[in-house]
What we know:
The protein is mostly beta strands. It has one domain. 8% of the residues lie in helices and 22% in strands. Strands 1-2-3 form a three-stranded antiparallel beta sheet, with no helix packed on it. The longest helix has 7 residues, at 60-66. The protein binds zinc ion (ZN). Residues 7, 9-10, 12, 43, 45-46, 48 line the site of zinc ion.
Amino acid sequence: MRQTKMCPDCSGRKFAVTELKDSDRCRVPVLPPKEGSFEVWICARCGYTALYARNLPQDIEDMARRYPDELRVVDAESGGQGPYR
Ligand SMILES: [Zn+2]
C-alpha cells in the first residue's frame, strides 16, 4: 500500500500515515521490543490499515533466536523449502 499508494481493499488513494512506537500501549507483538517501530498507513476511505516495520535489523534470523516466543522467520526467497519451515 505504501509503494502503490492505493488501498488494496477499496482502491482509495488518500491515507493517514503515523508511527506506532514500542512505548505505545497497543504495541503490536510482531516486532520485539527495542528493535524498531512501525509506520502505519490507514486508508482514509475504508480504514484498511497496513504496518511497515522501520529499522528492522539486517539479521532477522539472529533476532528470531533472541525472541523465539515472539518471532519466526519465513524465508521463501531461499527456494526449495516452500514458504514454511
Ligand atoms: Zn480503503
